[in-house]
Design a protein that fits this description.
The chain is an alpha+beta fold. It has one domain: Immunoglobulin-like (Sandwich), CATH 2.60.40.420. Helices cover about 10% and strands about 30% of the residues. It contains two helices and eleven strands. The strands form three sheets. The protein has a five-stranded mixed sheet with strand order 1-7-5-2-3. Strands 4-9-8-6 form a four-stranded mixed sheet, with no helix packed on it. The chain has a two-stranded antiparallel sheet with strand order 10-11.
């Protein structure tokens, strides 16, 4: 339980449990079935996603496999904050955590979120499924249609715009 308390206290990055509609995704007023990127057995869907600076992206594990979301340190802007499910501070720490006790992994219907503030390209991967090609890209640009004011609802494994709140 201490691990979840720690994760909840980590800045713009957290794992939250989506349990039968009881937990939301934080102060955004988002329901449990609202997320941006789903995770199938070995893929992020969509694989590429564009957002405006300040947008919180939510990943949801929609498969029966355990997954991670881990930034490639060399694949994010220099000024950007590293992100990884489990709150790790480096790829090496995330890989070590996964190998030791599956730290950073999240199960079916659990979510992970991260707020992107620095424009640029962010490449990330799933540690246990990296070799099968489970990688993704977030493009943070002022021209993106997904902004902090336009939540995305996806209940069928795809991302679709729901409009402005």
């Amino acid at each position: 339980m201490r691990r979840r308390a720690f994760l909840a206290s980590v800045g713009g990055t957290a794992i939250t449990l989506s349990a039968a509609g009881c937990l939301g995704l934080g102060g955004s007023g988002t329901a449990d079935d609202e997320y941006d990127i789903s995770m199938s057995t070995s893929a992020y869907r969509p694989r590429e996603f564009a957002v405006a600076p300040g947008t919180t992206v939510v990943w949801k594990n929609t498969s029966k496999s355990t997954h991670t979301v881990t930034a490639y340190e060399s694949g994010i802007p220099d000024e950007a904050e590293f992100f990884a499910s489990g709150g790790f501070e480096s790829v090496e720490a995330a890989r070590d955590g996964w190998l030791q006790d599956s730290s950073g992994g999240f199960a079916t219907n659990e979510t992970y979120k991260h707020t992107f503030t620095v424009p640029g390209t962010y490449e990330y991967f799933c540690i246990p499924h990296e070799k099968t090609g489970m990688v993704g890209t977030i493009e943070v640009t002022e021209n993106a249609t997904r902004t902090p004011e336009t939540p995305v609802t996806a209940t069928d494994g795809t991302a679709t715009e729901t409009g402005t709140e």
